[in-house]
Amino acid sequence: MKTVYTLKKGRRVIALLLLLFFFFSIAGTAYAESEKQLSVLAIWQDKNIVASLELTPEQVKEIQEADEEARKKRTDLWAKMEEIDQKLYRILAADVINERAVKILTRTKAGVREKMILQMAEERLIVGRILQPEQKEKLEQVQKDLEG
What we know:
By secondary structure, this protein is mainly alpha-helical. It has helices at about 10-40, 45-55, 55-95, 100-130, 135-145; strands at about 5, 95-100. It has a two-stranded antiparallel ribbon.
C-alpha cells in the first residue's frame, strides 16, 4: 500500500524547511568528520609535520598515494549523497509526498553515510600501518596541539 500525504502550502513549506535543516545538519556533521580525517591523511603535505614525525620518503609516498585514492572514494560518496539529496528534495517539494519513497531514500542515504564512516576508519588504519609506534605517538601529540 502506497502512503501519500497532502499538506497545505504553509505546512508543506514548514515541513520542507525542517527536513532540509535535518539533512544539512547530518551532512555538516559528516563533512566535519571527513575534514578531520583529511588532516590525518594529508600529513604528507605539511613539511613541518613530516619533519616532526621524521617520515621517510617512502612513508611520505605511501601516505600520499593513500590520500589520493581516499579522496577519489570520498568524492564518489559525496556525489551519491548529493544525488540522494536532490531526489529527496524533489519528492518533499511535491504537492503529494510519497512516504515510502522518502523512507527508501533516507535508508539509502544512511547506507552511503555508513560507507563514508567506514572509509574514514580505513584511512586511519592505513596511516596507522605506515607509521612506526614512535611516529604514532608524535602524530597524536601534533593532533592534540592543533586541536588545543
